[in-house]
Design goal:
13 strands, metal-binding, extended, alpha+beta, 41% helix, 15% strand, 3 domains, 205 residues, two-stranded antiparallel ribbon
Length: 205
């Protein structure tokens, strides 16, 4: 769409850098006040052009940057560049406290917190705190009761995606984890571990 194509321009988003007609159409999507970019379709506000670029793709649904290796597509070029590292194996972000390295800067930031013990994401309802935001988001559902992950086969719903995945085993019958000592098989590795320790511990080398 026009909104997304304009915001991908490398020039600063000001009335002087765009033609008057393009600028008018851009303002139908985004309001620029000083150094703030505000989305006119919702309440999102940011100081950064690239953040607004990513945000607008949520409204347009466009993913113009495609991987030539697997066909995966992305709304912003930076995400494609990060994805390409899954093919090249490049891990340019290294921890200065251990040998760990990562393909994404955010992954390094999260890893550093395992050294520092930092837990910057705190719950407003209790004393719980987390090193990554997604864990806080999941935790908040214990307070709100939100269960956004629903089963397509029954009325079950869950607060965590992993819980839904585990539930789906009931419907699919998938049991990929097999016991080496008997014919038992399980849908999760944890179940196999418990089974082995309970019934075959004496057989372990």
């Amino acid at each position: 769409s026009l909104c997304l194509s304009i915001i991908e321009e490398e020039t600063p988003l000001t009335s002087g850098s765009l033609s008057s007609s393009y600028y008018e159409q851009y303002l139908s999507c985004v309001s620029i006040q000083g150094d703030l970019y505000s989305c006119l379709q919702c309440h999102y506000v940011t100081k950064h052009k690239r953040n607004m670029e990513r945000h607008l793709s949520k409204h347009t649904g466009e993913r113009p940057f495609s991987c030539g290796h697997c066909g995966a597509s992305f709304s912003v070029k930076r995400n494609l560049m990060e994805h390409m590292r899954t093919h090249t194996g490049e891990r340019p972000f290294s921890c200065d406290q251990c040998d760990a390295s990562f393909s994404k800067k955010l992954s390094l930031i999260r890893h550093i917190r395992t050294h520092t013990g930092e837990r910057p994401f705190s719950c407003d309802h209790c004393s719980a705190s987390f090193s990554v935001k997604c864990n806080l988001v999941e935790h908040m559902r214990t307070h709100t009761g939100e269960r956004p992950f629903s089963c397509d086969h029954c009325n079950a719903s869950f607060s965590k995606k992993l819980s839904l995945i585990r539930h789906m085993d009931i419907h699919t019958g998938d049991r990929p984890f097999s016991c080496d000592h008997c014919s038992a098989s399980f849908s999760r590795n944890q179940q196999l571990t418990i089974h082995t320790s309970r019934y075959h511990a004496s057989k372990e080398p």
